[in-house]
TrEMBL record:
Keyword Cell membrane among UniProt keywords: no
GO CC, any one term: nucleus
Domain WRKY as annotated: residue spans: 215-279, 396-422
Compositionally biased region (Pro residues): 80-93
Coiled coil regions, renumbered to chain: none
Keyword Aminoacyl-tRNA synthetase: no
Polar residues biased stretches: 312-334
Protein name, as recorded: Probable WRKY transcription factor 26
Length: 422
DNA sequence: GGAATTTGACCATGA
DNA sequence: TTCATGGTCAAATTC
């Protein structure tokens, strides 16, 4: 639950470098919003409780509620978001990400010992970097605000006291990037999204190369070669969506990329796994060096945990720890080509790249992916700055992803309508 | 001239 | 059954 995972960044952000402010800045500076996530949770208007209330008022957009609270106008994307844009509260609602079982209050979840503490940010085991460091969370906040931010972040973050390998403070703490510039953009990242410096690099690279020749764009900085096979304007987004296939022979990997008009990537969704090593690239290193300046933030969403992709299944190695899984995303995330080797290992462990149900129509799968993406920055900002989102659809059952983090399973449940346990 | 991209049409799926 | 939507195909276009 993105919204629950962190405080909304409410910075009014008159900053001339909105992108630098990063979607990952959880600062609450500015008048936009000073409401903590806890407040949201406790709010009667909180969509999570809307199910019971179900009133139209309750279903107002988050931006509206925020504006109501703060008295400040909520910037809207281009002022007039299309009616069809996902501005409605449900997508924004943290509840869209999390389903809190009856009898379990959000507060309990927040107090859960398995929740990862945002304060326990550790470098990526694979990259040795702090995934968020480039995002300069508090760069736009005052010290006091920073304190508050941290506090809020802790409030929302899952904390773990048993697993020293903290992971995802960002994941859980991350709040919709667009909150800052708020728009109806789909740049929001859900709670489980992960940030990868390398993917970020890829984004930046893509962005930087946006205006370059198509040839130059052939290989994105995720290390693979992609061929665009389609583009379409999707409903609810003014950004065209491009469809890419990995150019490697027989490689089933695809990705969807949404770019804003100005060429900024607002969303990337990967599908499938590469069945080949990452091509040699001489640009990656250079792109990596620019990570710190990356304006666009990227998040990796593990659908098997978030969006409940049917094909997603968890394979436990019996130790309670999930085997690493090789996915194209993972490969993209990790540093160096050795990640392909990891992928190979994963293949052997998980039984192959294509464990996901190939019988399921791809369209359906992708659609399901998007179902969890409903969060819009609706009314959370006025800027057109969009933080690219990378959605990694892992296809293995493994819970430890090669996104550089380790995931600890803390529950499993059979969800109605979904044959696979969540 | 070959390869990549664009873009309209077609198809599948779900409401 | 119809319609809306998203994904893919493939001819046309561009590089």
């Amino acid at each position: 639950m993105a919204a629950s995972s962190g405080s909304l960044e409410t910075s009014t952000n008159s900053n001339s470098q909105p992108q630098q402010s990063s979607p990952f800045s959880f600062s609450t500076s500015g008048s936009f919003m000073t409401t903590s996530f806890t407040d949201l949770l406790s709010s009667d208007n909180y969509p999570g409780s809307a199910g019971a209330n179900g009133s139209a008022a309750v279903r107002r957009g988050l931006g509206e509620r925020i504006a109501e609270r703060t008295g400040s106008g909520v910037p809207k994307f281009k002022s007039l978001p299309p009616p069809s844009l996902p501005l409605s509260p449900p997508p924004v609602s943290p509840s869209s990400y999390f389903s809190i079982p009856p009898g379990l209050s959000p507060a309990e979840l927040l107090d859960s010992p398995v929740l990862l503490s945002a304060s326990k940010i550790l470098p990526s085991p694979t990259t040795g970097t702090f995934p968020f460091q480039a995002f300069n969370w508090k760069s736009n906040s005052t010290n006091t605000q920073q304190q508050q931010d941290v506090k809020q972040e802790e409030d929302f973050s899952f904390q773990t006291q048993t697993n020293p390998i903290s992971t995802g403070h960002e994941a859980w703490g991350y709040q919709e990037p667009a909150k800052q510039e708020g728009t109806a953009l789909k740049s929001e990242i859900n709670s489980m999204q992960r940030f990868s410096p390398e993917i970020s690099n890829g984004f930046q690279s893509d962005n930087n190369q946006h205006n370059q020749s198509s040839q130059a764009n052939k290989k994105s900085d995720d290390g693979y070669n992609w061929r665009k096979y389609g583009q379409k304007q999707v409903k609810g987004s003014e950004n065209p969506r491009s469809y890419y296939k990995c150019t490697h022979l027989n490689c089933p990997t695809k990705k969807k990329v949404e770019k804003s008009i100005d060429g900024q990537i607002t969303e990337i969704v990967y599908k499938g796994s590469h069945n080949h090593p990452k091509p040699q690239s001489t640009r990656r290193s250079s792109s990596s060096s620019s990570t710190a300046t990356l304006a666009s933030s990227v998040a990796i969403q593990s659908y098997n945990q978030i969006n409940e992709i049917p094909e997603k299944q968890y394979n436990s190695n019996g130790t309670g720890q999930m085997d690493s899984v090789a996915t194209p995303e993972n490969s993209s995330i990790s540093v160096g080509d050795e990640d392909f080797d990891q992928s190979s290992d994963h293949k052997s462990k998980s039984g192959g790249y294509h464990e996901f149900d190939e019988d399921e129509p791809a369209a359906k799968r992708w659609k399901m992916e998007n179902e969890g993406e409903g969060i819009s920055a609706a009314g959370t900002g006025s800027n057109t700055v969009r933080e690219p989102r990378v959605v990694v659809q892992t296809i293995s059952d493994i819970d430890i992803l090669d996104d550089g983090y380790r995931w600890r399973k803390y529950g499993q449940k059979v969800v109605k309508g979904n044959p696979n346990p969540r």
